[in-house]
Structure formats: structure tokens, C-alpha cells
Amino acid sequence: MDFSAELESPRQSLSREILGHVTEAPREFSSTERINRPVLRFQLFVEDADDHGDDECDNCDGAVPATCRLLISRRLDLSGITESAELGSQARAPSLGVGETDQDSLATTATPPLPSPTLCPSNRSTSCPDSPRESTRRRKGISGLRPVRADITVVDGIDTQRQMQVVARSFPKRSKIDKEAVASLKEASLDKFIVGIWEHIHGGADLDPQSILEQWQAAASAAGSTGAATMGNTGRNPGFGLLPAMASPAEVGGSFNQSNAFCRKVTQASRTCRSIEVVVQARWIEHFESYINFMASSNPSMSTKKCRKAVLLEACKDFGWTEKDMRNRMRIWSGYKELKDAGGWAAIVFAGMGIYRFCKYRIGFDAESMQGLRALRPRIEVAADTLHPNWRHLLAVVGESSEARFTGHPHDWVVFPCGSEPVPLRSTYLERHSLFNFEHLDESIVDVRAWGGDDPRWVLPPTALACPKAAFTCRSCGQEQSDDAKVNACYCFPSLFGGTRAVSPVQVFHTSNGRNNGLQALMPFDRGTAVGEFVGLVTKDLQDVDVLSSSTSSRPYQIWQGRQGNYTRFANHSCRPNAQFQSFVWMSIERIILVSKGIGAGEEITVD
């Protein structure tokens, strides 16, 4: 007979009871009953229930009745089970601080600190976590580890909409960005506008409308003949034909030079047209105001405001613009007129592209700034007339005179900081030297009576081993020197040597402290850049005159600027100079260079 089905239920009940005793057995030992290697021994007996009571064996002291029959006797090693239990109890125990003992922790647990109020998510109210209701709803931690509580600090004073909470312990933080150090677009100012004028005047711009027109007509005529021939041969229009297509390697040199010439002409034409545009727009504002006055005098019943409105609408109709667009453009054109009234026509002709932005934002359009620009007006016209003799031809389009006010060399005129009318250079020396005359030179002249055909400035070139392929080697940078820009590799003073010599942005001005004339920088000179070369008559053995004495390894010499020289003659002495004279050898000839120590725009250039 099969009793497996009937025994299944007692088997499960017996298994649960035995497993329960096995898992609870290690916990029944106290700390005083420490067992090094616990072993669980259990026995299974079978007896007759009629011979004993129900509770007799349960309450016995361990003695086995004689009527019991032993079925199973087993021993189970509990070493691994007890170690796991001890680790779990230690993890659940509260952590001890540094320097604390078990007794200390027991003492402190008797009076725990009051926890901070917490916000209950269900009712948004403050409740105590030790209340019976909260204790029943408290979640049991899964892990035995507990985070250490730390004070939370809110960082104040950060210029941002977001606040970050950080713990009290230190950790790497992102450094704040200095707003002042961040590069940003700066508004136009009157000082930058004036520096821009000097840059264009002393640059290589050609504002002669007649020469540009002649060059353009010649180029267009050549393009028309070339285009007609190409149309007949290929049947397609080559465009202007002024910028040739890619040529063969044998012709690429001439093609590139032709492209350079044409691009230069177009750039100058565009620059000239831009200047004419500004001049015409400034004059249009004058006609606009004049027409308003005429309409107001012709219609006394109309107010000036209504007359202005009527003239504005009439202009909108002729231009084909909306009233808003017309007003926006008139605001900029009015700035052109204000600059013209203060600085003259030359101020807006040589202003460059920066004039649009300057007049749009109108930074510095106040009475004081305009008065400063009015004082610079004669100086701007002196530089414009002497460096660009034909620039006034542009004014013929608005009916102004094209005759230059100042002629000759730019440094033949002495200007005044107060804005007075410039005077000739010779007139400032007549009181001391009635026969004074000064010739402006670009290069020094060797006195033949003193040196014959030799140049005392000649310096023995470096040995051929230093640079075998170079005829002249720079003693400062070690690169090859040449007057040919394609060959030259020395850029110690590029504004003076190695190419076309640039015009130095300086002017001779009359000092106010009795030193007669001085030299003033119109634009800033960075430290180490050349202001100019000290040129004059290279001679020797002069007595009782102001000369610059120098010498090479072979012989001494003098440079005299009494009757011949350049603008470096007018640099005055100072115990705190912003420039100095420096010797420099260019192609085996010693030169004396006036080098900047850091000169700002508008400062007087002085040497020791």
C-alpha cells in the first residue's frame, strides 16, 4: 500500500519546523556562551503516544525514554551560518564615531536627539517621525550601510538663477568667470573714430576720382574688345574679362600681376564711391533742413512740425522707402552732417567704414567731443591736402571747391593743439635764423667734401659661414636682407626696410612751454616699433652744433639735421622719454632708428 500521498503533509510541516530551529539556534546563545565551533546535533525518535503524555517529552530535561526507538541521528556544522549572522547584526548596529566606545553609544541611545521636522508628501504638513503613525509607515532599509549626516549649506552670492546645494566637506568647484575679462563687442567712440581717420590718411588709399575713372574706362574698353572676340569664337559671354582665367604655368606670373592691378583699382574705386556716398548724404541733410525752412516761410499757417512731416513724406515718395526706413537712414545721415560741421569734409571722406556704426550708436556725440574734433579740423586738412592732393575733387559733386588749402610736404606745416590755423615751418625759425630753410629727406646724404665717395656707415658683413646663400644677413634676427620684398626675410623694422617705406603718422606741432616745435604721434606706436629713421647729412668734425654722433668699427661719423633731415629732428629731450635711438645695420649700412618705448595716440614723442 502506497502511503506517499498521506505522508506529504506531515513531511512539509516537519521540514519547516526543523529548518526554523536550525536558523534560530545560533541566536539562542548569549555573549557569555561563546562557542568557537558550533555544531548542531539532532535525533529523531518514534514512540507510542499511549505510554506518555502529550507534554512529557517536550518538558523533559534531555533524557530519552526507554520505549523510544531512534530513527535518525545527525550533526550539522553551523560555523558558516553563525558568521553570516554576526556580520548582519554588526551592519544593523549604529555606527560609532571616532573615539567612541560601546558604552558611550549605549549611553547616547538612551536620549536620542530630536530629528528635524520633515515634510510629509501626503498632507504637506510637518510631523514627527517617531509617532506611531509614522513608525508604521517607515520603510525598512535594504542595505546595512547608512550615510553619514552632514550639514547642507546653500551657497549665496552666485549671480545665477540656479542655486546648488553642497555639503560642508570640500570638493573641487568650478571657478567663477570674470565678466570683465570676457571679450565683448565695444561700442564705437570718438577716439577710435579719430584714429580711423589718421589710419586712412596715412594709408595707401588713392582718392583721385579722375585717375580711377580713366583706369576703369581703359579696363572696360579692353574687356569689351576681348569679350566681342570671345563671343565670336565661342558663342558665350566671358563676363568683364578683366580678371583672366587660370593661365598656363608659363603665364601665371603675368596673370597674377594683372589680377593684382585690377583688384587694386576696383578696391580704390569702391573706397572712392563710399566717400562720395557719405559726402552726398551729408549734403542731402542740409538740403532737407533748408527745404523745411523754405516751406515754413512760404506757409506761415503751417507749423514747423507739419512742414517737417510733409517734407519727410515727399522724400519717402521720391526714394520709394517707408517712413520708418527713411527716418532710420536720416538719423545716420544727420550724424555725417554733424561730423562734417565739426571736423570738415576731410573727416567724413577719410573716416572709413567705421563712420556708419559710429553715427548709428552716436557714442560721444556731445558738445565736448565735437569741440575736440573741431580743434583737430586744421590738422586733418593739413595731412589730407599734403598726402592726398586730389582728394578735394570728390567735393565737386556737391559744389564745393576742389582747390587744396595746404601744399608741400606734410611736415612743412606746424599745427597747434588748440585748433589755430597752421603756419609754415620756416616762419617758426625766422626770429632765430632769418635765412632758415629746411629740406625734407627720405634717405641720408653723405657729405662728399668730408668722405669723398666712401660711406662711413659701412659695416663689414658677417662671414659667409653664417648664411652662405645670403648676400646680407641681419645681425639681430639672422635672416636675409634685401630691398626686394620677394627675397627679403628680415622683418625687424618692416615699416622702414624690406619694401615700400610707410608714411609715419606724426605731425610737427608748436609747444606751449617755450620749446618751439615738437613731434606728436597721431596714432599709437607699440613698444619696439620704429617711429622713423634719423636721416640728415652724414659728415664729420662739426663743432658747436647739434649733431648725432656715432661710429662703426672703423671710424666715427656725425649726422647733422640743421638744413636737411626729416621729422625726427623735432623730437625734444625728456628725462622720462617714450622713445630712444637705436643702431641697426641694414644691408651692411648702419642706420639710426627712433624706436618707440610705448607711445599713445596724441602723445609727444621725446628722447633722452
From TrEMBL:
Residue span of region Disordered: 87-143
Alphabetical list of InterPro entries matching this protein: Class_V-like_SAM-MTase, SET_dom, SET_dom_sf
SET domain boundaries: 504-608
Domain of life of the native organism: Eukaryota
Protein name: Histone-lysine N-methyltransferase
SMART domains: SET (SM00317)
PROSITE patterns in the cross-refs: SET
Organism expressing this protein natively: Rhypophila decipiens
Amino acid composition bias (Polar residues), ranges on this chain: 120-129
CDD domains per UniProt: SET
